[in-house]
Amino acid sequence: MAEPTPAPAPPAEAPEVAGEEAGPSKKALKKAEAKAKKEAEKAKRAAERAAATAQASAAAAEDHATGNYGQETHETKLSDDAIEISLKTLNDEHLGKKVKLRAFLQNARMQGAKMAFVELRETSNWAIQGVVAANADGSVSRQMVKFIGLVHPESFVAVEATVEKPLEPVKSCRVSNYELHLTKLFVISSAPAMLGMTLSTANKAVTNFSDEEAPAEAPVEGVEKLSIAGEVSGPPAASMITHLDNIVMHKRSYVQQAIADIRVEVKHLFRSYLRDQGFKEFEPPCLIAAASEGGANVFRLPYFEKEAFLAQSPQFYKQIEVLAGRKRVFCVGPVFRAENSNTPRHMTEFTGLDLEMEVTDYREALHMLEGVLLHIFRTIKKTCADEIALVRSVYPSEEFLLPEEGKEVRLTFAEGQKLLREEGPEEFRNVSDFEDMSTPQEKALGALIKKKYNTDFYVLDKFPSDARPFYAKEDPANPKVTNAYDFFMRGQEILSGGQRIHDPVELEARLRTKGVDPNSPGIREYVDFFRQVGAPPHAGGGIGLDRVVAWYLNLPSVHLAAYYPRTPKRLLP
């Protein structure tokens, strides 16, 4: 019998294939891997931050100088035994002593992590170098050095320091033979990180005096400044409009401080000289009822239910003082002219130096005015020598030439015109003796007089009647001219003056000749002054302070000599 056929073996189990439900896919593995890596990096960063925080806390705990620097608060204090100093009077007696100073920080520079240099300016260009270095006892720490090195230029600070001799003179500072080793510094008022104009720019010569609005200039980063070595870096010179838009930095500049100091001295010398000559000061009003010079160049303004004017000169009031028996008077104050003249020699408001005096001959006043100006010029050459030199380092100019004593240059108006016709440029060969001079004529005549007489200062007398105001007295010998004069510096007028009419009948006739109604408001009252009392003959003049300073220094614009110049297009700041 045949053997039975064996049963077939059960099929073998199929092996597991990757990618089936039995395990994660490659994509899932990659995603998990990325997530794990991200978590690890996050943990690492957290650990680093924690370590940095711990390190900073430890460092702060080790900063033993925290009470010696920072923003000034009611708790910060300089030592009571520190000597308060002025950089102008710093001397060898201060060496090694503890001192304190409040100043503008005009420059700061780090040198490594443990040392910084600063420049501290007290006023004008009086600056000194300061040094701060981390020390072993911790009273000056690295953190303190870093803080001082990062103070914004032009911040106002209070410092405590020891006065020492530098290894060599510090060329970038006026106080070059001493330096301050800082032990404390507190910022009283911080300057912004971005300055509209840096000190180095403010100290450069202004060459653009246009009143037109220029495109806005990009702010200059505050850290751009004078280097310790004294080298000036930064942008080119700014326009006058940029200077006035950054008025504080404009006035902080060394050159503007020097000009301001010269201006103050001129005003002081004017006052002191006249007081010595028996003059008395008075204060005229600026608000008046009628135009003091006549004409259209006057500012009008509503005055309650009436109209008022800003004084074009203190003329009427000088005369009232003399009529009142004061004999010799002077005043210093603002003068307003509504002239739409946008030139470097005009302003709508300027400072007048005026005088008036009794005379027997009008030339007495001419000589008095000449004397006070020559006194001013000869004195400031000595008393303001440093300031003049500083200004000339920015605005180069030749020395202002004066006539020898006893050889003052005085020409009549006709003699000046004759000199122009005979020796001046071709365009002035036909100038008239009876028409006022133009600015180009004045400058051309100034050049001729300098060449002929070796002086920048001179007088023109006997101006034509048509060129003078209604109160100017005519020359009895020649009614076509007046007993009136102008003074000039470098060919530009700085003073007008002369004898005034003191007889009311003559004054009324002169007013009518000038086309002015003697009975108009303000004028009628002026004429009445001379009817009320007997009036002594008198003469005087008005000097433009801004022009005197500007032309003595030969500045490119009178605006540089004014504190806050006012022009037809400028009422700010």
TrEMBL record:
GO biological process assignments = aspartyl-tRNA aminoacylation
Q: Which domain of life is it from?
A: Eukaryota
Main enzyme class: ligase
Residue segments, region Disordered: 1-75
In Gene Ontology terms, what is one molecular function of this protein? Answer: aspartate-tRNA ligase activity
Task: Enumerate the catalysed reactions.
Answer: tRNA(Asp) + L-aspartate + ATP = L-aspartyl-tRNA(Asp) + AMP + diphosphate
Chief location bin = cytoplasm
Q: Indicate the segments forming the Aminoacyl-transfer RNA synthetases class-II family profile domain, all copies.
A: 262-573
Q: Which GO terms describe its cellular component?
A: aminoacyl-tRNA synthetase multienzyme complex; cytosol
Q: Which NCBIfam families match?
A: aspS_nondisc
Q: Which family does it belong to?
A: Belongs to the class-II aminoacyl-tRNA synthetase family. Type 2 subfamily.
Provide the alphabetized UniProt keywords. Aminoacyl-tRNA synthetase, ATP-binding, Cytoplasm, Ligase, Nucleotide-binding, Protein biosynthesis
Return the Pro residues bias intervals. Answer: 1-13
Q: Which PROSITE patterns is this protein grouped with?
A: AA_TRNA_LIGASE_II
Q: Where is the composition biased (Low complexity)?
A: 49-60
In short, the EC number is 6.1.1.12
What compartments host this protein?
A: Cytoplasm
Stated name of the protein:
Probable aspartate--tRNA ligase, cytoplasmic
Q: Where is the composition biased (Basic and acidic residues)?
A: 30-48
